[in-house]
Amino acid sequence: MSPYELFVGLRYTRAKRRNHFISFISMASMTGIAIGVMALIVVLSVMNGFQKELRARILGVAAHVQISGIDGRLANWQAVAREASGGPDVVAAAPYISAQGLLANRQNVQGTLVRGIVPELEDRVADIGSHMKRGSLADLKAGQFGIVLGAELAHAVGARLGEKVVLIAPQGQVTPAGILPRIKQFTVVGVFEVGMYEYDAGLALVDLQDAQKLYRLDDEVSGVRLKLKDLFLAPEVARDLTRTLPGDLYVTDWTRSHANFFRAVQIEKNVMFIILTLIVAVAAFNLVSTLVMAVTDKQPDIAILRTLGATPASIMKIFVVQGSLIGVIGTAIGVVGGIAIALNVDVVVPAIERLFRVQFLAKDVYYISELPSDLQLRDVVTVGVMSLLLSLLATLYPSWRASRVNPAEALRYE
């Protein structure tokens, strides 16, 4: 592209047009591109944030890899834990008991998932200990029948630290009066809040030996939980353990047990990308109409340039420059605005909620009650390049029309 083509194209962009409607359409196209790019960057950052936050919160309570017995009972868990921990990618292993229970306190009754743990080992495979609001996991001691509740669960049953609650196991015991459920009184020694409603409202932790007594498991457990150096290696580690461990054990990893959550978020992210790309596409179509009207308005100028020796290719390049500049400016504004909003979502969203007195993510409806954001360079580059390509494509037809202008016809009535 020669300097004069670039100069004339930029001159056309800066010049005050006789037709103000063309100027308005140009500004509308630029604004549309900027809004589309900004919305895409913000939405993709929020979806990335949801993926990251969901993964962190789920795996802060769940396990990277889980080994359990086929019938839900695992004997000699120490040997299984030693063998599983021998791999280079395994950081820690901890036994667990998982069972259903009914928690009662005065008139309040709530169903819960009861997890029996060894506190010092559990801290190595999960992050619950770092999310304690009151008390500590270390307060769970064998034989003292202490219990740690999720914050929402404690609120639902009206239990406070130090109070007694009744835990009812569904497995009954046979008596002369019939089958009665097993009931045991526990003392609340801690309350945790991981920020994920499913766990905060439905999980109770007790000592492993206390759970064995309540559910009559003797020395057995439900399984062993593993933590890995890299959580994305979980499928590979699980496959290796399936081949090396005895055949009566069931090995699963977080990508299988929580696949629906992460697959749903990824699908939503892809769909939102397609939908919001249409905003940029509509703005690009506006750019087509802008340049078509500009070509019509500039036909005498085009004819003069042709008589001075400009080739059709040169005329085409002039209008490509004019249209591309609108796309570049719109994209740049959108990228800067999108990055600014994505980096400050934690400030912008609460301000909007306070202003309009609404709550976008209710705790009892959504797994995550705060709008997260994770800005990634790859998404910014993808959106920017896509916007520039659409803007460039939008200039081709009007520019081709300009290159086909006949100088004699254009100057006939001048």
Residues in helix, %? 40-55%
* Counted beta strands: 10
- Beta fraction: 15-25%
How far apart the termini lie comes to: 30 Å
What gross morphology would you assign? elongated
Strand order of the largest sheet: 2-3-8-5-7-6
**Poorly predicted sequence stretches spanning 5 or more consecutive residues:** none
Number of domains: 2
The description of the largest β-sheet is:
6 strands, mixed, barrel
What this model shows, in words?
The chain is an alpha+beta fold and 414 residues long. The chain folds into two domains: 3-57 and 261-410, no CATH class; 63-255, no CATH class. The protein has helices at 3-14, 20-61, 77-84, 119-125, 151-157, 197-200, 208-214, 234-244, 254-257, 259-297, 299-307, 312-343, 345-356, 377-403, 407-410; strands spanning 65-69, 90-105, 108-117, 132-135, 146-150, 164-175, 178-192, 203-207, 223-228, 249-253. The protein has a six-stranded mixed barrel with strand order 2-3-8-5-7-6, surrounded by four helices. The longest helix has 42 residues, at 20-61. It is elongated and about 110 Å long. The two termini are 30 Å apart.
